[in-house]
Protein backbone atom coordinates (compact mmCIF):
# COMPACT_ATOMS: atom_id res chain seq x y z
CA UNK A 1 0.00 0.00 0.00
CA UNK A 2 2.80 2.43 0.92
CA UNK A 3 4.68 1.72 -2.31
CA UNK A 4 1.55 2.28 -4.45
CA UNK A 5 1.01 5.63 -2.73
CA UNK A 6 4.55 6.62 -3.60
CA UNK A 7 3.99 5.64 -7.23
CA UNK A 8 0.84 7.73 -7.40
CA UNK A 9 2.56 10.71 -5.76
CA UNK A 10 5.45 10.55 -8.23
CA UNK A 11 2.96 10.23 -11.08
CA UNK A 12 1.15 13.41 -10.12
CA UNK A 13 4.34 15.36 -9.61
CA UNK A 14 5.48 14.38 -13.11
CA UNK A 15 2.35 14.85 -15.20
CA UNK A 16 0.23 17.46 -13.44
CA UNK A 17 2.63 20.30 -14.18
CA UNK A 18 1.59 21.10 -17.64
CA UNK A 19 -0.27 22.57 -19.90
CA UNK A 20 -1.34 24.58 -25.29
CA UNK A 21 -3.13 26.08 -30.02
CA UNK A 22 -4.71 27.83 -32.92
CA UNK A 23 -7.14 27.57 -35.79
CA UNK A 24 -9.32 29.81 -37.95
CA UNK A 25 -12.13 31.35 -35.90
CA UNK A 26 -15.82 31.58 -36.72
CA UNK A 27 -17.55 34.88 -35.94
CA UNK A 28 -20.03 34.81 -33.05
CA UNK A 29 -22.21 37.65 -31.76
CA UNK A 30 -20.29 40.92 -32.07
CA UNK A 31 -16.85 39.31 -32.31
CA UNK A 32 -14.08 39.70 -34.81
CA UNK A 33 -12.31 36.78 -36.47
CA UNK A 34 -8.88 35.27 -35.86
CA UNK A 35 -6.88 34.04 -38.82
CA UNK A 36 -4.80 30.90 -39.07
CA UNK A 37 -1.66 33.06 -39.05
CA UNK A 38 -2.48 34.64 -35.67
CA UNK A 39 0.17 34.00 -33.03
CA UNK A 40 -1.62 31.97 -30.39
CA UNK A 41 -1.31 33.56 -26.94
CA UNK A 42 -2.62 31.09 -24.37
CA UNK A 43 -3.46 31.82 -20.76
CA UNK A 44 -2.31 28.86 -18.66
CA UNK A 45 -5.17 27.73 -16.41
CA UNK A 46 -6.67 31.10 -17.34
CA UNK A 47 -3.93 33.28 -15.89
CA UNK A 48 -2.52 31.40 -12.91
CA UNK A 49 0.11 34.02 -12.14
CA UNK A 50 -2.56 36.68 -11.60
CA UNK A 51 -5.79 34.92 -10.56
CA UNK A 52 -6.83 31.61 -8.95
CA UNK A 53 -6.20 28.87 -11.51
CA UNK A 54 -8.93 27.14 -13.52
CA UNK A 55 -11.65 29.44 -12.20
CA UNK A 56 -14.14 31.67 -14.01
CA UNK A 57 -12.46 34.91 -12.77
CA UNK A 58 -9.11 33.67 -14.14
CA UNK A 59 -10.63 32.96 -17.55
CA UNK A 60 -12.39 36.30 -17.81
CA UNK A 61 -9.25 38.15 -16.71
CA UNK A 62 -7.30 36.31 -19.42
CA UNK A 63 -9.87 37.45 -21.96
CA UNK A 64 -9.45 41.02 -20.70
CA UNK A 65 -5.72 40.61 -21.37
CA UNK A 66 -6.45 39.60 -24.95
CA UNK A 67 -5.49 35.92 -25.06
CA UNK A 68 -6.41 33.94 -28.15
CA UNK A 69 -6.87 30.69 -26.22
CA UNK A 70 -7.90 29.71 -22.71
CA UNK A 71 -5.77 26.76 -21.57
CA UNK A 72 -7.70 24.65 -19.08
CA UNK A 73 -7.71 21.25 -17.38
CA UNK A 74 -10.68 18.87 -17.21
CA UNK A 75 -11.40 16.39 -14.44
CA UNK A 76 -14.40 14.14 -13.76
CA UNK A 77 -16.52 13.89 -10.59
CA UNK A 78 -18.22 10.84 -9.11
CA UNK A 79 -21.50 11.87 -10.76
CA UNK A 80 -19.73 12.18 -14.14
CA UNK A 81 -19.64 15.96 -14.27
CA UNK A 82 -16.81 17.59 -16.24
CA UNK A 83 -15.22 20.37 -14.20
CA UNK A 84 -12.05 22.45 -14.26
CA UNK A 85 -9.15 21.16 -12.17
CA UNK A 86 -5.48 20.53 -12.77
CA UNK A 87 -5.41 17.64 -10.29
CA UNK A 88 -8.20 15.13 -9.62
CA UNK A 89 -7.66 15.75 -5.90
CA UNK A 90 -7.72 18.97 -3.86
CA UNK A 91 -4.23 20.46 -4.06
CA UNK A 92 -2.96 21.62 -0.68
CA UNK A 93 -1.43 24.77 -2.21
CA UNK A 94 -4.78 26.28 -3.16
CA UNK A 95 -7.55 24.61 -1.15
CA UNK A 96 -9.59 25.77 1.83
CA UNK A 97 -12.04 23.20 3.19
CA UNK A 98 -15.70 24.10 3.85
CA UNK A 99 -14.86 24.35 7.57
CA UNK A 100 -12.27 27.06 6.86
CA UNK A 101 -9.17 24.92 7.43
CA UNK A 102 -6.48 24.28 4.83
CA UNK A 103 -5.80 20.85 3.39
CA UNK A 104 -2.38 19.55 4.38
CA UNK A 105 -0.02 18.12 1.75
CA UNK A 106 0.08 14.70 3.42
CA UNK A 107 -3.72 14.44 3.13
CA UNK A 108 -4.41 15.94 -0.31
CA UNK A 109 -4.64 12.63 -2.22
CA UNK A 110 -7.39 11.46 0.08
CA UNK A 111 -9.55 14.33 -1.20
CA UNK A 112 -10.13 12.44 -4.45
CA UNK A 113 -12.73 14.33 -6.49
CA UNK A 114 -13.44 11.33 -8.72
CA UNK A 115 -15.03 9.86 -5.58
CA UNK A 116 -16.94 13.06 -4.73
CA UNK A 117 -20.21 14.47 -6.07
CA UNK A 118 -19.78 17.78 -7.85
CA UNK A 119 -22.13 19.61 -5.44
CA UNK A 120 -19.68 18.68 -2.67
CA UNK A 121 -16.62 19.67 -4.74
CA UNK A 122 -18.10 23.12 -5.26
CA UNK A 123 -18.11 23.80 -1.50
CA UNK A 124 -14.29 23.81 -1.34
CA UNK A 125 -12.63 27.19 -1.93
CA UNK A 126 -9.63 27.38 -4.29
CA UNK A 127 -9.06 31.13 -4.40
CA UNK A 128 -8.48 32.42 -0.87
CA UNK A 129 -5.32 30.63 0.25
CA UNK A 130 -2.14 32.60 -0.61
CA UNK A 131 -0.25 30.69 -3.29
CA UNK A 132 3.37 29.95 -2.28
CA UNK A 133 4.68 30.29 -5.84
CA UNK A 134 2.53 33.07 -7.33
CA UNK A 135 2.81 36.18 -5.18
CA UNK A 136 0.90 38.34 -7.69
CA UNK A 137 -2.13 36.06 -7.64
CA UNK A 138 -5.22 37.98 -6.52
CA UNK A 139 -7.07 36.33 -3.64
CA UNK A 140 -10.85 35.87 -3.75
CA UNK A 141 -13.57 33.34 -3.10
CA UNK A 142 -13.51 30.85 -5.98
CA UNK A 143 -14.51 27.27 -6.71
CA UNK A 144 -13.89 24.66 -9.40
CA UNK A 145 -16.52 25.37 -12.09
CA UNK A 146 -18.19 23.01 -14.51
CA UNK A 147 -16.90 23.15 -18.08
CA UNK A 148 -20.44 23.97 -19.18
CA UNK A 149 -20.45 26.94 -16.78
CA UNK A 150 -17.22 28.21 -18.28
CA UNK A 151 -18.67 28.06 -21.78
CA UNK A 152 -21.77 29.95 -20.59
CA UNK A 153 -19.72 32.57 -18.74
CA UNK A 154 -17.52 33.25 -21.78
CA UNK A 155 -20.60 33.53 -23.99
CA UNK A 156 -22.08 36.12 -21.61
CA UNK A 157 -18.75 37.99 -21.52
CA UNK A 158 -18.52 38.05 -25.30
CA UNK A 159 -21.99 39.58 -25.65
CA UNK A 160 -20.59 42.88 -24.32
CA UNK A 161 -17.02 42.74 -25.66
CA UNK A 162 -15.82 43.21 -29.21
CA UNK A 163 -12.99 40.77 -29.74
CA UNK A 164 -12.41 37.39 -31.37
CA UNK A 165 -14.18 34.51 -29.68
CA UNK A 166 -11.56 32.53 -27.75
CA UNK A 167 -10.48 28.96 -28.24
CA UNK A 168 -10.49 26.48 -25.36
CA UNK A 169 -7.44 24.23 -25.12
CA UNK A 170 -8.71 21.46 -22.85
CA UNK A 171 -6.42 18.90 -21.27
CA UNK A 172 -7.70 15.44 -20.37
CA UNK A 173 -6.17 14.76 -16.96
CA UNK A 174 -5.66 11.02 -17.17
CA UNK A 175 -2.92 8.41 -17.29
CA UNK A 176 -2.85 4.58 -17.30
CA UNK A 177 -1.53 4.39 -13.73
CA UNK A 178 -4.64 6.03 -12.31
CA UNK A 179 -7.46 4.71 -14.53
CA UNK A 180 -10.61 4.13 -12.45
CA UNK A 181 -8.81 5.51 -9.39
CA UNK A 182 -8.73 9.25 -10.12
CA UNK A 183 -10.56 9.33 -13.45
CA UNK A 184 -12.45 7.10 -15.91
CA UNK A 185 -10.68 5.29 -18.72
CA UNK A 186 -9.93 7.37 -21.85
CA UNK A 187 -12.99 6.39 -23.91
CA UNK A 188 -15.42 7.38 -21.15
CA UNK A 189 -13.41 10.49 -20.29
CA UNK A 190 -13.45 11.73 -23.90
CA UNK A 191 -17.13 10.92 -24.36
CA UNK A 192 -18.08 12.86 -21.22
CA UNK A 193 -15.96 15.79 -22.38
CA UNK A 194 -17.31 15.76 -25.93
CA UNK A 195 -20.91 15.60 -24.73
CA UNK A 196 -20.47 18.95 -22.97
CA UNK A 197 -18.67 20.42 -25.98
CA UNK A 198 -21.35 19.26 -28.42
CA UNK A 199 -24.26 20.22 -26.15
CA UNK A 200 -22.82 23.75 -25.95
CA UNK A 201 -22.06 23.92 -29.68
CA UNK A 202 -18.34 24.49 -29.10
CA UNK A 203 -16.85 21.92 -31.49
CA UNK A 204 -15.21 24.63 -33.61
CA UNK A 205 -13.71 26.40 -30.58
CA UNK A 206 -11.90 23.57 -28.83
CA UNK A 207 -8.56 21.81 -28.98
CA UNK A 208 -8.05 18.67 -26.91
CA UNK A 209 -4.57 18.19 -25.44
CA UNK A 210 -3.07 15.42 -23.37
CA UNK A 211 0.06 13.68 -22.16
CA UNK A 212 -2.03 10.53 -22.33
CA UNK A 213 -1.85 9.49 -25.98
CA UNK A 214 -4.75 7.06 -25.44
CA UNK A 215 -7.26 9.89 -25.08
CA UNK A 216 -5.91 11.61 -28.21
CA UNK A 217 -6.09 8.32 -30.14
CA UNK A 218 -9.70 7.76 -29.09
CA UNK A 219 -10.59 11.34 -29.98
CA UNK A 220 -8.92 11.04 -33.39
CA UNK A 221 -10.80 7.81 -34.13
CA UNK A 222 -14.23 9.01 -33.04
CA UNK A 223 -14.07 12.81 -33.47
CA UNK A 224 -11.49 13.32 -36.24
CA UNK A 225 -12.45 16.96 -36.85
CA UNK A 226 -11.43 18.05 -33.35
CA UNK A 227 -7.85 19.46 -33.28
CA UNK A 228 -5.40 17.63 -31.04
CA UNK A 229 -2.33 18.78 -29.12
CA UNK A 230 0.34 16.27 -28.08
CA UNK A 231 1.80 17.33 -24.72
CA UNK A 232 5.43 16.37 -24.10
CA UNK A 233 7.31 16.42 -20.78
CA UNK A 234 10.90 17.66 -20.53
CA UNK A 235 12.14 14.18 -19.59
CA UNK A 236 10.74 12.60 -22.78
CA UNK A 237 13.85 12.11 -24.90
CA UNK A 238 12.19 10.36 -27.85
CA UNK A 239 12.47 12.08 -31.21
CA UNK A 240 9.48 13.84 -32.76
CA UNK A 241 9.07 11.02 -35.28
CA UNK A 242 9.23 8.39 -32.54
CA UNK A 243 6.53 10.20 -30.54
CA UNK A 244 4.28 10.57 -33.59
CA UNK A 245 4.76 6.89 -34.41
CA UNK A 246 3.56 5.93 -30.91
CA UNK A 247 0.62 8.34 -31.20
CA UNK A 248 -0.34 6.76 -34.52
CA UNK A 249 -1.36 9.92 -36.37
CA UNK A 250 -0.12 13.45 -36.97
CA UNK A 251 -1.43 15.83 -34.29
CA UNK A 252 -2.55 19.36 -35.04
CA UNK A 253 -0.17 20.76 -32.43
CA UNK A 254 3.07 19.65 -30.82
CA UNK A 255 3.21 21.09 -27.30
CA UNK A 256 6.50 20.39 -25.51
CA UNK A 257 7.94 21.79 -22.30
CA UNK A 258 9.63 24.97 -23.48
CA UNK A 259 13.24 23.87 -22.78
CA UNK A 260 12.89 21.19 -25.47
CA UNK A 261 12.28 23.70 -28.26
CA UNK A 262 14.93 24.63 -30.79
CA UNK A 263 14.85 25.90 -34.36
CA UNK A 264 15.40 22.43 -35.83
CA UNK A 265 12.41 21.04 -33.92
CA UNK A 266 10.19 23.90 -35.03
CA UNK A 267 11.26 23.46 -38.66
CA UNK A 268 10.68 19.70 -38.46
CA UNK A 269 7.16 20.21 -37.10
CA UNK A 270 6.32 22.82 -39.71
CA UNK A 271 7.62 20.52 -42.45
CA UNK A 272 4.98 18.03 -41.25
CA UNK A 273 2.31 20.75 -41.01
CA UNK A 274 2.29 20.60 -37.20
CA UNK A 275 2.07 23.76 -35.10
CA UNK A 276 4.44 24.22 -32.15
CA UNK A 277 3.08 25.69 -28.91
CA UNK A 278 5.38 25.21 -25.90
CA UNK A 279 4.46 25.44 -22.22
CA UNK A 280 4.76 27.17 -19.69
CA UNK A 281 6.72 30.35 -20.42
CA UNK A 282 6.72 33.07 -17.75
CA UNK A 283 9.70 35.15 -18.86
CA UNK A 284 9.61 37.87 -21.52
CA UNK A 285 13.10 37.09 -22.81
CA UNK A 286 12.20 33.42 -23.24
CA UNK A 287 8.96 34.37 -24.98
CA UNK A 288 10.91 36.50 -27.46
CA UNK A 289 13.52 33.76 -27.93
CA UNK A 290 10.85 31.19 -28.77
CA UNK A 291 9.02 33.56 -31.09
CA UNK A 292 12.30 34.13 -32.95
CA UNK A 293 12.52 30.36 -33.48
CA UNK A 294 9.13 30.47 -35.20
CA UNK A 295 6.80 28.85 -32.67
CA UNK A 296 3.10 29.26 -33.43
CA UNK A 297 2.04 30.20 -29.92
CA UNK A 298 3.04 30.17 -26.27
CA UNK A 299 1.32 29.15 -23.04
CA UNK A 300 1.99 31.43 -20.06
CA UNK A 301 0.82 31.87 -16.47
CA UNK A 302 1.15 35.62 -17.09
CA UNK A 303 -0.81 36.63 -20.22
CA UNK A 304 0.02 40.26 -19.40
CA UNK A 305 3.55 39.48 -20.65
CA UNK A 306 2.19 39.08 -24.16
Overall helicity? 25-40%
In the CATH hierarchy, what is the superfamily?
Phosphatidylinositol (PI) phosphodiesterase
Rounded Rg: 18 Å
Strand content: 5-15%
Distance between the termini: 46 Å
Fold and architecture overview:
The chain has one domain (about 1-305): Phosphatidylinositol (PI) phosphodiesterase (TIM Barrel, Alpha-Beta Barrel). It has about 300 residues and is an alpha/beta fold. Helix 5 (about 185-200) packs across helix 6. Strands 1, 2, 3, 4, 5, 6, 7, 8 and 9 form a 9-stranded mixed beta sheet that branches. About 30% of the residues lie in helices and about 15% in strands. Strand 2 (about 70-75) and strand 3 form a beta hairpin.
Task: Map the helices and strands.
Layout: H1 2-15, E1 40-44, H2 56-64, E2 69-76, E3 82-84, H3 118-121, H4 147-158, E4 167-172, H5 186-199, E5 206-210, H6 213-222, E6 228-232, H7 240-247, E7 253-256, H8 263-271, E8 275-276, H9 284-293, E9 297-300
Parallel strand pairs: 1-2, 1-9, 2-4, 4-5, 5-6, 6-7, 7-8
Antiparallel strand pairs: 2-3
Helix pairs in contact: 5-6
Amino acid sequence: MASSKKIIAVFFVSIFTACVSNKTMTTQNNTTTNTAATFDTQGHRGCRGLMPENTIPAMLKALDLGVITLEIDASISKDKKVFLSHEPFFNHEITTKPDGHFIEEKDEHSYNMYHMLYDSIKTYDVGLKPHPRFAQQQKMHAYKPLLSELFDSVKTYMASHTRAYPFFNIETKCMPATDNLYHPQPAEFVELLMKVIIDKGMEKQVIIQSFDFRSLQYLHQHYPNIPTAMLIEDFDKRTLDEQIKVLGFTPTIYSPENSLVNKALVDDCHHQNIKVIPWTVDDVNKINELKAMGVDGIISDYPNLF
